[in-house]
Specification:
2 copies of one chain form a homodimer. Chain A is α/β, with parallel strands linked by helices. Chain A folds into 3 domains: 58 residues, lambda repressor-like DNA-binding domains (434 Repressor (Amino-terminal Domain)), CATH 1.10.260.40; 128 residues, Response regulator (Rossmann fold, 3-Layer(aba) Sandwich); 134 residues, 3-Layer(aba) Sandwich (Rossmann fold), CATH 3.40.50. The first copy, chain A, is built from 14 helices and 12 strands. Chain A has a 6-stranded parallel beta sheet, sandwiched between helices. In chain A, strand 1, helix 6 and strand 2 form a beta-alpha-beta unit. Chain A is elongated. The termini of chain A are far apart. Chain A binds a DNA duplex through helix 3 and helix 5.
Chain lengths: 352, 352
DNA sequence: CACAGAATGTAGAACGTTCTCCATATAACG
DNA sequence: CGTTATATGGAGAACGTTCTACATTCTGTG
């Protein structure tokens, strides 16, 4: 390392591609070629350059990269970071990305659609190479328009007709059917679904899909007429209130399918408080198989859609699109039942 | 809007600062000045430019901005996204940032220190304006070195001697004392702490601080000699095993203070399975006051360190440093007790 | 009315990459 | 040996901002 180089390091000046080029005695273009392992690089050149990079501890500037070409970053957009389902998705994404030279940057949008759009735009403005949107609330046309600027994969967004972007989903209709079938198998006929309040529900959302599956399974069992769905508001004060009202209803059903573990677990807690025994008085099944559901204290049966797998698949799909695919892909996964104590007193089911 | 402009929009060409300048009939520099609301802009000019921006829907490229000046992005580094404490911190950060022109990008590092460093470097390479590190596992010197390249605030990292970066913490020593005092007030004398396995524990970590507080409070109560701490491994198979062993010990203490709700809740679950009654046989108090602890089913007393507030304070601190402060700040917050059923049978304490 | 000083606007050089040509050296072939 | 193809390396123009230095136009003041 030359004296000049050492001074540079001490001065804390940035080591740029130019520093590396000078140090290796080659051109800037040559270094760039090696970095991107582009065509037309001899072994000798490659060695010189990689040595120089190593020695100087050079890291390319992502900002500059983004300005010209790929930034090797993919953006992940989350709504509502509180849902225990999301960490799994992230883990899946990171798992696939780890061995590659890509990295994930996560943006968290709270409830407002406004923020959601501006966060996506920011990611585009950063010249990220692709986006994974998890449970976006945006209308399909808007996503399609954004997709003309950047490759997009939507997770938890049912729009199998989309041509501009890909979707990766668990089969939420089927998941709901499985839940109902499990309740039926335990002998319950009087089954109700606890779903999410109106506000959130465009047809493409997972919640609406689960409602469809619920209705279909009930119909199939000849219970179509009694298949009722209650909507639970998402915000704290009204939410518990509505659940309490549900629990104290005289015509309370024998079994309930909750659209999400989040609601199911709160329901279990309120039931305990109010002296409603689970599963003797009320059987409960949730959705997501979150880690809390698995706790012995909670012991909630749930539908498992592996978030980790969803994240992995979404990432792989995104990468193929970044690397050139133009036709849309719409991938489904089949969820599975995890039976636990909230379903039935003593059964052959696994779980404590 | 000129015909040329419309064509550009249709072709989906990026609207750049140059487009805006041409459309407003001013120079590029003028537009830039307006954007940054720099000195030397007349009302007339500002109006022309903002109109043009509005009309063309111009958004500055973050990539290009990062290359030259500020990127108006702050990076948040999380380890272990599964901890229910973290979403609160994020919410706090986003809350403070929302009205500003800054945005947060989150990076999630799993257990490996290697990834942690490379993620931070990436954020530097993106020319982010500042970093919030949550519970970093890096040694102080490394953080200090990174801090020479970018403003850094560490949350959950006790290093009040650091001069190169700021820290924001709940007073974990005091929190542990409060926990012990609560147990003492209930009449328990035989108290043990369940802490985290060796691996994680540099002196600066919150865990070690809680241990110190635990010892001090016990000492103060004249129980210094019997103040023992058990370490629970972090990984799944050994973790439960160690807890079970603890629960079936013949000299099991009367009360236990867990370093985190995460462990406390698992402990409650195992206790139920094994027929150890809480709080009759064993009183439990946790740390973090996570949303799960508040569930009626769980009903775990816990120490509350408002993650949201921590996130807010960290963000405000970071911004002042970005805007020029050079002296280090080390901020403490006092945690508080949230009493619940895991503490004592029937008391005046709030909670179900 | 002359002139200093403030206010306003602009040119143009960075910033650190990528990537499209080109130029040259070497190999292959008749 | 001449000609063409191929392999290798380099020059230099983008990319979309920021920001310094400068030119011009307005004030106000003596």
């Amino acid at each position: 390392m030359s004296i000049e180089d050492k001074q540079r390091l001490q001065r804390n000046d940035r080591v740029t591609i130019r520093t590396v080029a000078k140090h290796a005695g080659v051109s800037v273009a040559a270094v760039s070629k090696v970095m991107r392992n582009a065509y037309g690089v001899s072994e000798g050149l490659r060695a010189k350059v990689t040595d120089a990079i190593e020695e100087l501890g050079y890291r390319p500037s992502r900002a500059a990269r983004g300005l010209r070409g790929r930034s090797f970053t993919i953006g992940v957009l989350l709504i509502d970071i509180r849902n225990p389902f999301l960490p799994e998705v992230i883990a899946g994404v990171n798992g696939v990305l780890a061995p590659s030279h890509y990295q994930a940057m996560i943006g968290v949008s709270d409830a407002r659609v406004q923020l959601e759009t501006s966060l996506i735009e920011s990611m585009i403005d950063y010249k990220m190479d692709g986006l994974i949107l998890v449970a976006p609330r945006l209308p399909s046309e808007i996503i399609a328009k954004l997709a003309s600027e950047i490759p997009i994969v939507a997770v938890g967004y049912h729009d199998a007709g989309a041509t501009a972007f890909d979707t990766v989903n668990a089969d939420d209709q089927r998941g709901a059917e499985i839940a109902v079938e499990a309740l039926l198998a335990c002998g319950y006929r009087d089954i109700e679904m606890l779903s999410l309040g109106e506000r959130e529900g465009h047809q493409v959302s997972v919640v609406r899909q689960r409602e469809i599956g619920f209705r279909r399974a009930m119909q199939r069992a000849g219970l179509g007429s009694s298949a009722s769905i209650s909507k639970i508001p998402i915000a704290p004060p009204k939410r518990e209130e509505t659940m309490r009202k549900f629990l104290s209803r005289k015509n309370r059903p024998r079994a309930v399918f909750c659209w999400s573990d989040l609601d199911a677990i709160t329901l279990l807690s309120l039931a305990m408080e109010m002296g409603v025994r689970v599963p003797e008085d009320l059987a409960v099944i949730g959705y997501d198989n979150s880690s809390t559901a698995a706790l012995g204290l909670v012991n909630l049966a749930s539908i498992d859609q592996s978030g980790r797998e969803l994240g992995q698949v979404a990432t792989r799909t995104l990468i193929t699109r970044i690397e050139g695919r133009t036709s849309a892909e719409h991938i489904f996964q089949i969820p599975s039942l995890v039976s636990r104590g909230s379903l039935i007193r003593s059964s052959n089911a696994k779980g404590a």
